[in-house]
Design goal:
By secondary structure, this protein is of the alpha/beta class. The chain has a single domain (4-134), classed as 3-Layer(aba) Sandwich (Rossmann fold), CATH 3.40.50. 33% of the residues lie in helices and 27% in strands. It has four helices and six strands; from the N terminus they run H-E-H-E-E-H-E-H-E-E. The chain has helices at residues 4-16, 32-42, 77-87, 100-108; strands spanning 21-25, 56-60, 65-70, 92-96, 113-120, 127-134. Strands 2-3-4-1-5-6 form a six-stranded mixed β-sheet, sandwiched between helices. Helix 3 (77-87) links the parallel strand 3 and strand 4 (92-96). The longest helix has 13 residues, at 4-16. The protein is globular. It starts with a helix and ends with a strand.
Length: 135
């Protein structure tokens, strides 16, 4: 998929089916935070920033909470414990720098997870989104 509206529709459909954790993978600058910003806009949230230096940002809309994490260079036991604790909070969780290994670990702990792989396309300013659901 390369249309952001289609991607957001797919994410909303997964949320309707019980998925609330989305692991975002892709190279630096590929648009992981952009995807979270676009999703947040659909919930009436206009101010979204990358949590690169703070681990987690939390946003509240009228109907849900959005948790936005950044795991880049944060592979410590403390970070993992904090992540697991936060994932128990009710809301929609977007985790930048997630991967298949983390998806499988979270799934084995009973979480409903989708992996969103973002890659650059040959067209300027266009991205390819692949969503893999791991239930």
């Amino acid at each position: 998929m390369n249309d952001i509206k289609q991607v957001l529709d797919s994410i909303n459909s997964l949320i309707d089916n019980g998925v609330n954790i989305f692991l975002l993978s892709g190279n630096v600058g590929v648009g992981k935070t952009f995807l979270v910003k676009e999703f947040a806009k659909t919930k009436g949230i206009t101010q979204v920033n990358s949590p690169t230096f703070s681990f987690i940002h939390e946003y509240a809309s009228l109907d849900s909470k959005i948790f936005h994490y950044d795991l880049y260079l944060k592979n410590t036991q403390d970070s993992k414990a904090k992540l697991l604790e936060s994932l128990s909070l009710e809301g929609i969780h977007f985790i930048e720098w997630g991967d298949k290994s983390l998806a499988q670990t979270l799934q084995s702990l009973g979480f409903c997870v989708s992996l969103v792989e973002i890659t650059e396309s040959s067209t300027k300013d266009s991205r390819i989104y692949t969503i893999i659901s791991i239930f």
